[in-house]
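Q: You know discrete backbone vocabularies at least as well as I do. I have my own habits and do not want them to colour yours. No explanation is needed for now; the record alone will do.
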Amino acid sequence: MDNKYSEKIIVLWITFLLGTLFHTQLGLMPLFHNQSILIEDNPTGEIAGILWSMFGFFTLPLVSITTILFVQTRRYRQVHFGMTVFYSVMNLVHLVADLFVQPIAWYQIALMLMLFLNGLLLNRVAFQWMREQAHRRYLPEREWG
């Protein structure tokens, strides 16, 4: 029984990363129309913390994609599932936060909703992947080997 969970998860992570990059690109599009993208609520102008947070947010899925190719342990599957839940929660928080940005950029809301739904699908497949190994322990070698 080969459900190819790891391949599905990799595709869902890539979809998430592309959507996240597109979300960032959409935020920069006003520059091409001579409009400002400055955020006025950062009085110091220091954004190093934001950039490091973005770096981590992008890097963890990249590392996860690579790790999935080489690590299939039960512990990694559990950690990975927890990570997908964390990302779904963060996407929901970001979606709600975007609703408070004035004026509301509905195209960004639509994209964040798509990312959130992609994350829920990722949660489901990661959960199935995590449970698959637990069930395999009880099957004879010849049925799944």
